[in-house]
Design a protein that fits this description.
Layout (H helix, E strand, L loop, with lengths): L1 E5 L3 H12 L3 E5 L11 E2 L8 E2 L5 E2 L3 H9 L6 E2 L4 E6 L2 E4 L3 H6 L7 H15 L3 H4 L4 H9 L1 H20 L5 H10 L4 E4 L3 H15 L2 E3 L4 E6 L6 E5 L2 E5 L1 E4 L3 H7 L5 H9 L2 E11 L8 E5 L10 E4 L13 E9 L10 H8 L15 E14 L19 E3 L12 H17 L2
Parallel strand pairs: 1-2, 1-14, 2-10, 7-16, 14-20
Antiparallel strand pairs: 3-4, 5-9, 6-9, 7-8, 11-12, 12-13, 15-18, 15-19, 16-17, 17-18
The structure holds flavin-adenine dinucleotide.
Flavin-adenine dinucleotide binds next to helix 1, strand 15, strand 19 and helix 13.
Length: 432
């Protein structure tokens, strides 16, 4: 069987791995000139490692990703340094990634609030009944069970930060549950960076006989009338396939396959998502305190961004020729002004806040700046979202769809891209 996969991100590459192992001819079409999709990275000439365009790490619980890496024989390249995630309170940052740290966090005061915070956290860690939780918004469930003060101090900033003022009251409680239930404080990466892993994965796919066609966007997919075959319009010409898997955003799927039934297209159009804007700075000096990696910042604290991530407090600056790498990012609706502003305009907005992380910071510390933006970064899961998820098997026989928007109840991530890609592959094999 000749199988076409659209997209060489982790879902597309993982599906390709299983389909090729099952003996099929697999061609992966990728519009970019590199593999890895949203989790790809870039590298300067003097660097040993790549830096991700959007900050990335794995959790110790990412069994699908870590299992795949083991299958590929690359487990010895996975490392789990121990950085700290810190949260802003009253002008200072406090570590907040373990029960003990949460108990010591001054924002909650002492007494009942801490007990409610602890008990709710424990419940969410232990329960598996997310179907009950998806009936409620985070806002209503958390206010009820932790109380307004704990919610507004600990959880509301996270939800507002991720989903903005328009969506944060609509996000369902299963989304929050999934983050607390599945994530670990141990954070992992690949020696050489995520791009090094994506390239080695692509190398293994090619060795196995998968054809990966870079710089080859697909613009249209049609079922040939009176045949089971598909006709793909690619930038290099028309291609035929017996089965097709699309791994793009729902809007891209809808415009690429106009022959999908109206009901399925309508389902795709209802899926909402947030975009992301990330500036990466190479600095001459360390910006923030040793070991502090991830800074969560409530929007209400007046910072023009949501998170600051000092990558070289997690992996050594020696990997980047001694340069210190800092990401500054935000999740925003795709019509936000940051999607129109130039890199220097955004940098101008962000720079004054860097003194809050280090009063000695001067713009002269900056070696270089990069900006990456994507309109499709974080799907929004509203109440009873399980009923809105489009099926991987589309109503068009032989056509499959596996995207971040179908990852649920878990929050999207490369681990779940691997899982959904492999699930799509097993469905494609079953229908054979
Ligand atoms: C800001 C941010 C932070 C994140 N942090 C983490 C993290 O810490 N850990 C983690 O595990 N995950 C993280 N993620 C999520 C992770 O990046 C995604 O879940 C994962 O990469 C999605 O993989 P995918 O294969 O589903 O999609 P994608 O990676 O989007 O792959 C789709 C591919 O299709 C290609 N394509 C698009 N249009 C066409 C076309 N017309 N023809 C051919 N090809 C096309 C694209 O170029 C892309 O390569 C983060 C994401 C963002 C945005």
């Amino acid at each position: 069987m000749r199988i076409a996969i659209i997209g060489a991100g982790y879902s597309g590459m993982s599906a390709a791995w299983d389909l090729r192992k099952a003996g099929h001819d697999v061609i992966v079409y990728e519009s970019a000139d590199y593999v890895g999709g949203l989790a790809s990275g870039f590298k300067e000439p003097g660097w040993k490692w790549s830096v991700e365009k959007f900050y990335h790490h794995w959790f110790a619980s990412d069994q699908h990703m870590l299992g795949l890496i083991q299958e590929l024989g690359l487990s010895d390249k996975v490392i789990f340094p121990r950085p700290y995630t810190v949260m802003y309170h009253d002008g200072k940052f406090f570590p907040l990634d373990s029960v003990i740290k949460a108990i010591l966090f001054p924002g909650l005061g002492w007494g009942l609030n801490k007990i409610r915070f602890g008990l709710v956290g424990l419940y969410l860690r232990l329960t598996t009944n997310w179907r009950e939780l998806e009936k409620y918004t985070v806002d209503e469930w958390m206010r009820k069970w932790t109380g307004d003060k704990v919610y507004e101090m600990m959880w509301e900033p996270l939800v507002i930060g991720k989903f903005g003022v328009n969506y944060y009251k609509q996000v369902n409680m299963a989304w929050m549950w999934a983050r607390l239930h599945a994530r670990t404080t141990r954070l992992g990466t690949f020696e050489g960076g995520f791009q090094a892993f994506a390239d080695q994965f692509a190398g293994k796919l090619r060795e196995a006989g998968v054809e990966i066609r870079l710089s080859t966007p697909v613009s249209n997919i049609q079922k040939v009338v009176g045949s089971d075959e598909f006709q793909l319009t690619t930038s290099t010409g028309i291609e035929m396939a017996d089965k097709v898997l699309v791994t793009l955003a729902p809007a891209a799927m809808a415009s690429m396959v106009p022959c999908l039934p109206a009901e399925y297209l309508e389902g795709l159009s209802k899926l909402k998502s947030m975009g992301a804007v990330v500036l990466t700075l190479s600095l001459k000096h360390q910006l923030s305190r040793e070991g502090y990696y991830w800074y969560s910042i409530p929007k209400s604290a007046g910072f023009p961004f949501l998170a600051l991530v000092e990558h070289t407090n997690y992996v050594s600056p020696e990997n980047f020729g001694g340069e210190h790498i800092v990401y500054i990012g935000d999740y925003l609706e795709p019509d936000h002004e940051y999607f129109q502003m130039s890199q220097s305009e955004i940098l101008e907005r962000f720079l004054p806040s860097l003194k809050k992380f280090n009063p000695d910071f001067e713009p002269a510390w900056i070696n270089k700046v990069w900006m990456y933006r994507t309109a499709y970064a974080q799907p929004v899961a509203t109440v009873n979202h399980s009923q809105n998820i489009p099926s991987i098997e589309t109503p068009v026989d032989g056509l499959y769809f596996a995207s971040m928007s179908q990852v649920y109840p878990w929050d999207r991530g490369t681990n779940f891209a691997v899982e959904i890609g492999r699930k799509a592959a097993s469905l494609m094999l079953r229908k054979r």
